[in-house]
Amino acid sequence: MVTTETITIEVPVGMSKYLEVIDPKSELTRNALLLYPYILNQTISHGRAAEILGIRKSELIALYDKLGYSYFDIIQDDLDDELNSFRELKKKDYNFNT
Fold it and tell me: Which of 43, 19, 40, 42 is nearest to 31 (CA)?
């Protein structure tokens, strides 16, 4: 169980009705979304955010993934380039050691 505290924030009129806690899952999602900008700007890590929320890092990553926020900030083309570079280095290393 995570220790909680109550804070007051200012939000636009009409928003408060959407911030009412409906269930624990919605509350976790809301709190995870409040932490996301600090992960994005690298103030805290996914691990630290998960710790704050009282869940495992893998659970937080899965939650963000379901919301469309990728853990990896790399596009497929860049990933393919990285994999090809790795394969080439591995091939050179293998040829060097044989």
Answer: 19
